[in-house]
Amino acid sequence: MPVSHPRTVRALQANTMSWTISGAVMALGYGTDESWPMTSVVVLGAGALGSVYGAWFAEAGAEVTLVARPAHAEAINQGGLRIDDRPPVEVQAVSDPVDAGDCDILLLASKAFDNADLLGGYRGSTQAAFSVQNGVRQAEPLVARFGPAAVGCVSLVGGTLGDPGHATHSFDGPTLLGDLPTTEPGTAATIAQALPRRKLEVHDDIAPALWSKGVLAAAAMGVVGLTRLVYHRIFLMPETRDVFYDLACDGAAVAAAEGVELIDGHGPFQVRALTQESREHAHQRLRAVGEGMEAAGETEVRVSILQSIDRGRPFEVQAVFGDLVETAEGHGLEVPTLRAVTRLLAAAMPGESASS
What is the DSSP string of 175-188? Predict the structure, then answer.
């Protein structure tokens, strides 16, 4: 049976609501006076990133159920969910998706290869669903399962899983949401309104952001997966910068073949500019990224593929790399670096996963 929450239903109080509109992007920010109705949230695959988002929803007043690995779920139910050094957050955790009930918002935060088990096991319904997974086609399983409730999402947030019951918020980037052509209009904005005080944007067209994140993910995860380096280090050596640039250019060519124009997003990772400039200028740009991270003390960022390698678990070869290679093949496009890295990572893949 679906679990029930111990928390008393209450409303989130907010003081101000500000809307900043720039072109097709709407940024949402909240204060503390206007009331917002209680929201129920289910997080399928609550590892590092799912735990961070789950805690954010709970801190905003939502009733949250995390579907997590048994040890993580047990620790959360015994002592609460801890993010960084903050006090524990009260959420409900289960290890089987069948035990999670209907919800207002569903977040898919597992690795892509666990989608079938989690979505197949979840028997509930939802009004809005989004995914923080990697891959340019990450919304497709949600569209297939939830239809007009599914939206597109690009998460530039970082998280690392520590001991059971504890996660670290390792990178404070924004979350971009957007209705898909199949989405009930306004669904993305509804999700954004349930996460006060977080860096959220609602885009009219989420596809360029999805592809831009997908190209950067393939470049970053490809280099990290083969070298086992922490994130900032891959930008400090010319050899790894070279491969990062080649992977990004291959990915950009696939996006162009699909008719998608990449965008320059947040922070130092300007993917459109990077893939349109010379190798020499790209090296300068990427080296500056690494030096900036080092100066900021961001020297322990372990991207998701490295966390999977650390734990001896599979990583997302098909979702991050294979989909791009197959799309390139469909267009008769040569992507030699992307293809080679995909083959090497597939060869290094450990055994099958049960859940993320």
Answer: EEEEE-TTSPTTHH
CA–CA gap between residue 345 and residue 277 (Å, rounded): 28
β-strands 12-13, 35-36 pairing: antiparallel
pLDDT digit string, tens, across residues 177-211 = 999 999 999 999 999 999 977 889 999 999 999 99
| 281-320 as b/e: b if 16+ CB within 10 A | ebbebbeebbeebeeeebeebbbbbbbbbeeebbbbbbbb
Task: Give CATH superfamily name and number for 12-204.
Answer: NAD(P)-binding Rossmann-like Domain (3.40.50.720)
Q: HSE on the CB side for 103, CA within 13 Å?
A: 31
Going by the DSSP 8-state scheme, the letter that residue 87 receives in this structure is P
pTM attached to this predicted model: 0.84
pLDDT band at 268 (very low <50, low <70, confident <90, very high): low
3-state secondary structure of 74: helix
Q: Which residues of the chain does CATH 3.40.50.720 include?
A: 12-204
Cα(309)–Cα(252) distance, rounded to whole angstroms? 27
How many other CB atoms are there within 10 angstroms of residue 24's CB atom?
Answer: 13
pLDDT in tens, 227-254: 999 999 999 999 999 999 999 999 999 9
Q: Which of 169, 172, 174 is nearest to 153 (CA)?
A: 174
Look up residue 61 and give its amino acid.
Answer: G
Question: Tell me: domain 209-347, CATH 2.40.50.870, correct?
Answer: no
Taking the C-alpha atoms of residue 349 and residue 353, their distance in angstroms, rounded to an integer, is 11
- What's the rounded Cα separation, in Å, for the pair 148 and 184? 5
